[in-house]
Amino acid sequence: MWMWLVLLYGVFKGLREIVKKKALEKNSTMEVLFLYTFIAFLMVVPDVKNAMGLAPKYYFYIAIKSFVIFLAWIFSFKAIKKMPISLYGVLDLSRVLFATLLGVVVLQEVLGMYQMIGLALVSLGLLMLKYKPKALAKQLAEGGEQVEVKLIVMAFASCILNAVSGLMDKLLMRDINSSQLQFWYMLFLVLMYLIFILVTRTPIHVGSLLKNYWIWILSILFVIADRALFIANGMEGSRITVMTLIKQSGCIVTILAGRFLFHEKNTGYKFVCAAVIIVGIVMGVM
To answer: Which of 46, 175, 218, 264 is the least buried, fewest Cβ under 10 Å from its Cβ?
Structure first.
């Protein structure tokens, strides 16, 4: 059951990358981030009765998780706004390496033969993308716009931070329930983005922001996906190393969107990379 929940998260994650791209066409990064998290928080407020009763130390731990995601989302939104969606989707797969490393080192999970083969194939898919100079050069220049190195660095920083957040989810869900984690995590996120906006005096165009229906769709996808992931983390037998591999199913969604929705070029090579990665995912869950 937990594998199906993580698969749902992966597919919704891929859909979210598409919706993020569309939402950012109409509003700035910080505008989208704030309204997106605020709407998502309002959606979980009705479950507040199940979110009470935490020991003080857990508020601190959840606040740390929220800060990690606060930074991760700023990096990812800035990267995805200017980077081809299909390229971002494949680069985002590098988080599997970071998350697997954390699972083995911190949680002392043991990789079986199939998991090791799966991890090797996922890594191979990433290396195929990154170390084929001519193909990569074309991908980085899709649409005639050169993707800046700092955007790629931001994408990787987001991957590392998301891997840390995934580890914290697994650790926290040993002692608290999904309602508690989701409610307080969302509340802290909203406060952090609000403080950032006030301190930096970031302009907010309320009219256009409220009319940007992509943000509302993004919030719905986020709430459903995160609840599925939190529940999966709390299930007995769930393993962060396997979960991380399954999450990467979202890359197929982003590559398809890049080809058919955003009309990006040179997606054929990305499909090959993604195919290798998907085979790795299948091997990892065997």
So the answer is: 46
